[in-house]
Design goal:
The complex is a heterodimer of chains A (138) and B (430). Chain A contains four helices and four strands, in the order βαβαββαα. With 138 residues, chain A is of the alpha+beta class. The two termini of chain A are 26 Å apart. Chain B contains eight helices and 24 strands. The chains are: A alpha+beta (138), B alpha/beta (430).
Chain lengths: 138, 430
């Protein structure tokens, strides 16, 4: 595990299963806003902030992997990416909250959010290799 | 490198005692096919095989993949290398194609991920797979709690095995037409067609994780560095789809086998440009991967002395970043680009179409707006589970009405806005 690697997420099952998870209670936009704030404080993005293949109003979960570097200058590439993502999500008329969805559907979205992050979480050493999150309680 | 595609034209499907083809009718021994796919212990005991013909009042949902039946009768290797056959290099010799037939895999994996095919009505106008004679495999996992990776792999393999089986059973039949493709190796290509620009095809493949993955010779493409592939290898099934979302712009295995960008580039090779090679690249999640792959793919293009590349994307949102990185990195190396993508511009078409852009991306072709809303009238028969329309990407709770009609965005229709251009949508100047 690298020092300073943090997963910012509103996917509580995933958050509980990784080292260095930071849970955001709220929408996908709240997650992106938290990531943007971290970038302003010197963090750099390790994963692209946009979700793959689902519109913002379709996927209630969002997870962004960052590396915190306290006191570092702002990483302009990260700032540009996260600002664009926040703008795209902010322009979306209605963003669902995880609790808006029926349990079975919510589990599927939480599962796919994890699956799209799995490789990155393993790569940066914050996902224990044996334990996988259980999505029954989201 | 020479590949001959021996096409047997299929216009009708029937069930019978022996799998084979005669007079345009593909006869399928249903039990034999069921036994073949049931061999996989990861699949359940209640599998089905059905038929859906163009014009039928049939809806197939949720669709995972579409595969064209092919089988090699001469040359190295066998179709779908690394999946149903060994990993030997393909792309040479003779390959039988059951043209007009397709294997469609249907079954729930993760509920919102799959698509819809209507065989008639307005929905049929948007999916290319309403024109094929479809052998539909209805799949289920051995147990509901099964690992989804295992189940996805089992579904993928079932479709590939069925497609290879159907074509293998017809290998002795006389072909209706033969198409010959010659493709020069890099050494020859470098000096061929002096005066014409050297052009390559930068072939982006969706590789973000489960249900978003693609395989090259059985290798998970998210784990490779960009590499060079002959277009003839692609025709023999070197690229296999393992992804589902979004239904409208996933590149099915069928579309890889029949990639219209490759077909067109081969047609124009030697006349308008010198088509040198395909460069396969991935669309990963981490920024380091995106940077590495886009730099490496465009570096390959520069090393080959290409003057231009056509770049096709798969998917949208996060992959838009890969598309844009490939574009500006190529352009800044002096390689001209033309991009092929689709749009998510909102139901009114007024929103930003792509999640990313760059000034170098000034030659872009669209395959349509995936957010267009369409009403699909009820069909007499549903193969699969109609209720999935309520949770499929592009649908919403209430998409399925009491009378069986479905209101969805084009996103939910399999292949509606194919980013390889294998679509019924088009545009003309008036």
């Amino acid at each position: 595990m690298r020092n300073g690697v943090v997963l910012i997420t509103n996917n509580s099952s995933l958050c509980g299963a990784v080292f260095g998870g930071r849970l955001v209670e709220g929408s996908s936009l709240d997650v992106l806003t938290a990531a943007r704030d971290a970038v302003h404080l010197g963090a750099s993005l390790l994963t692209h902030p946009l979700c793959g293949n689902l519109r913002p109003h379709q996927q209630p979960f969002r997870s962004v992997l960052i590396e915190e570097n306290p006191g570092a200058l702002v990483d302009l590439e990260s700032l540009s990416l996260i600002d664009s993502a926040v703008t795209i999500y902010r322009d979306c008329a209605r963003l669902p909250l995880p609790e808006d969805l029926e349990a079975a559907v919510r589990r599927d979205y939480a599962f796919v959010d994890f699956e799209l992050m799995r490789d990155s979480l393993e790569r940066y050493g914050i996902l224990p290799r044996i334990v996988s999150p259980v999505f029954g309680k989201v | 490198m020479r590949l001959e595609l021996h096409r047997i034209l299929v216009k009708k499907l029937a069930f019978g005692d022996k799998t084979g083809v005669a007079g345009g009718t593909l006869t399928i021994n249903r039990e034999e096919l069921l036994d073949l796919i049931s061999e996989d212990e990861l699949l359940g005991g209640n599998l089905g095989v059905d038929i859906a013909m163009p014009g039928d009042s049939i809806r197939i949902v949720p669709v995972k993949d579409v595969v064209e039946p092919r089988w090699k009768i001469e040359g190295n290797g066998q179709v779908f290398p690394g999946a149903v056959s060994d990993v030997e290099t393909v792309g040479e010799g003779k390959t039988v194609v059951l043209s007009g037939a397709a294997v469609v895999t249907a079954g729930k994996i993760v509920r919102f991920q799959e698509g819809i095919i209507d065989m008639s009505g307005p929905g049929a106008e948007y999916t290319p797979y309403s024109r094929t004679c479809n052998v539909v495999l209805l799949l289920e996992p051995a147990n509901p709690g099964m690992d989804k990776h295992d189940y996805e792999a089992a579904c993928r393999m079932a479709g590939l095995k069925a497609a290879a089986y159907l074509a293998r059973c017809c290998a002795e039949a006389r072909a209706d037409e033969a198409e010959v493709f010659d493709f020069a190796d890099i050494r020859e290509a470098m000096s061929a067609h002096p005066g014409l620009p050297k052009v390559g095809y930068l072939y982006m493949l969706q590789t973000q994780g489960l249900l978003h993955d693609t395989y090259l010779y059985g290798a998970d493409v998210k784990k490779i560095l960009p590499t060079v592939v002959s277009p003839l290898e692609v025709m023999d099934g070197a690229i296999v789809s393992g992804n589902c979302v979004s239904a409208c712009d996933k590149n099915s295995t069928y579309v890889h086998q029949n990639n219209p960008v490759i077909a067109d580039m081969l047609r124009r090779h030697g006349r308008d440009f010198n088509f040198v090679t395909c460069i396969v690249t991935n669309e990963n999640v981490t920024l380091a991967d995106k940077r590495r792959s886009s730099s490496f793919a465009t570096k390959l293009a520069a090393m080959l002395g290409l003057d231009g590349v056509i770049i096709t994307e798969e998917g949208f949102g996060n992959p838009d970043a890969d598309l844009v990185m490939n574009c500006w990195k190529a352009e800044r190396l002096g390689i001209k680009t033309a991009l092929l993508t689709d749009e998510y511009a909102g139901q009114d078409g007024a929103s930003q179409s792509l999640a990313d852009s760059c000034v170098e991306g000034d030659a872009c072709v669209t395959a349509g707006n995936a957010n267009e809303v369409i009403v699909l009238p009820p069909m007499k028969k549903v193969l699969g589970v109609a209720e999935e329309a309520n949770v499929i990407a592009g649908g919403w709770q209430g998409s399925l009405a009491g009378d069986g009609s479905i209101t969805v965005e084009l996103q939910a229709i399999t292949g509606a806005t194919s980013e390889l251009g294998y679509t019924k949508l088009g545009a003309c100047t008036i």
